[in-house]
Known about the structure:
two-stranded antiparallel ribbon; mainly alpha
Amino acid sequence: MAITFMPVPSVVVRFPVELRAEPSMDLIHEIEPDAREVVLVAECFGLEPPRLDLCDRVDAETARFIAEQVLPLSCEEQRLRWWSCCIRSWLPRWRRAAGRMG
């Protein structure tokens, strides 16, 4: 798969598959590499293979950051209001994604 870099200063990398198919969870599952492939490629280039618990560590670190930096622990009402707002904005996207997967 070829990777196309945008000519403007950006961290966005466009993949050719985006031009042929609408982004969806099905598409992501179809094009995601097998974990064994990732380990083999890392080994071929002499790189340290990715840690298997990376997603769990990132989720835990993100939750800790939100709890400590974004929402002070002493402001229970503010935290609940913030989460309520987030969930209301995320819920429609989750429902659409669940509808496409199921």
